[in-house]
Specification:
With about 400 residues, the chain is of the alpha/beta class. The chain has 14 helices and eleven strands.
Length: about 400
């Protein structure tokens, strides 16, 4: 290992150490993603609720469903061979999520489960369409700035207090079946508009408890002053019996399938990886520049043909052989016309003039003058003088340039 390579490695190690030292004392940035996962301690996770659920729903057995869909879980508990053909379990199905994480097939199974005398508590920001259509309810969204919304219970004997709740967008029920639906809670926005956010709807032999403000169950709200009391009041409507809590989080679209996903998910490892790549690029760049062979400078070859032509031309001119020079100029001109424009030069007549004018776009009078001078030179029996050479040369230059 050369001395320069050791210096590069030492510099990279020092930079890496400086980054680690600078990041050590910096507070970890808060992750505000709304994961609604029972494993997340971030503001919009459900870790606190998961730990306190047993204390809120006392003497009720809680079974968490995290590895299968609601359809797979409930269908496995259904006994089709019995005389009554019902479920082997009784209780309440619970789901708390910001977005709809229940597929249509599972929603139909939940409705079938409720119709057999069970219940379902759904606190969601987006309800499945099959459920809305069956219960004849509609909901809308209203913009509510953070910490400006208020939520409270409809039953004054349960609680008369209004609680602040965090949420950027709050959904509410805009249309309900007033003959069948019981209003359990309300919310208001910054304009003090009162909207329904918690209802109980009978469905055959069971009940659906629908709540549109799931943010109330997150870590942030449960640990913020007295907001946990609102959560306890909402959960108090869940009937006694076993609880089947669906805790599976569907964030597959946000999970990277790259083998580097863990390294890139950790800030320290991510910057170490980036620093390594930058260091390797710098090392390869400098190493390649030092080992590249010197490219020799090659002088361009001299155009001896041009020099030879100039020498012969000067020789003819100094000898005063103007006729010979004119002959060669004419031969060069006619050869170029045949090669570049594919025009026959046997007869230099009016037809030749018209063809050359169409091909070159030059002035027809200039072409006629040149043809006249060439024919005159061919038919002349006396030696040409310098003025004849100049006239023909100028005429040719007008056509070819």
């Amino acid at each position: 290992m050369s001395k320069n390579v050791k210096i590069y490695i030492a510099v990279l190690v020092l930079i890496f150490a400086a980054i680690l030292i600078s990041d050590y004392n910096e507070p970890k940035p808060i992750d505000w993603r709304p994961t609604y996962s029972v494993n997340d301690k971030i503001p919009y996770g459900l870790f606190v609720l998961d730990k306190e659920m047993g204390g809120i729903l006392k003497k009720q057995k809680i079974e968490r469903i995290s590895s299968v869909t609601p359809y797979e879980f409930l269908d496995s508990k259904y006994d089709p061979d019995s005389l009554v053909q019902t479920y082997r379990i009784k209780g309440t199905f619970i789901n708390i999520s910001l977005q709809n994480n229940i597929d249509d097939q599972s929603m139909k199974e939940i409705m079938y489960f409720v119709s057999h005398g069970n219940n379902a508590f759904l606190s969601m920001g987006d309800f499945p369409k099959p459920l809305l259509d069956s219960l004849k309810i509609e909901y809308k969204s209203d913009f509510i700035p953070t910490d400006s919304s208020s939520v409270w219970m409809a039953n004054k004997t349960l609680s008369t207090k209004r609680y602040k709740s965090t949420g950027d967008v709050a959904e509410y029920f805009s249309k309900i079946d007033t003959l069948q639906t019981t209003v359990l809670g309300y919310q208001s926005n910054q304009k003090k508009k009162k909207n329904i956010n918690f209802i109980a709807v009978p469905f055959h032999d069971g009940y659906f408890f629908l709540h549109t403000h799931p943010v109330a169950f997150t870590n942030y709200n449960l640990l913020k002053k007295d907001r946990f009391q609102y959560t306890e009041n909402v959960l108090s409507y869940i009937p006694e019996g076993d609880i089947f809590w669906y805790t599976k989080v569907h964030n597959s679209e946000d999970i990277s399938l790259s083998p580097m996903r863990y390294i890139l998910s950790q800030p320290a490892l991510k910057w170490a990886w980036y620093l390594f790549l930058i260091g390797m690029f710098v090392f390869i760049l400098f190493n390649a520049k030092r080992k590249q062979r010197i490219v020799p400078i090659l002088q361009p070859l001299q155009n001896l043909t041009v020099d030879f032509t100039k020498t012969i031309g000067n020789l003819y001119y100094q000898e005063g052989d103007h006729t010979n020079i004119i002959d060669k100029k004419i031969i060069y001109f006619l050869e170029k016309v045949r090669t570049d424009y594919l025009i026959d030069t046997t007869n230099l007549d009016d037809e030749f003039v018209k063809k050359l004018q169409h091909k070159t776009g030059k002035n027809e009078a200039d072409i006629q003058e040149l043809v006249f001078l060439i024919n005159e030179h061919k038919n002349s029996y006396h030696a040409s003088i310098e003025s004849d050479l100049i006239r023909i040369n100028n005429a040719i230059e007008k056509i070819l340039h």
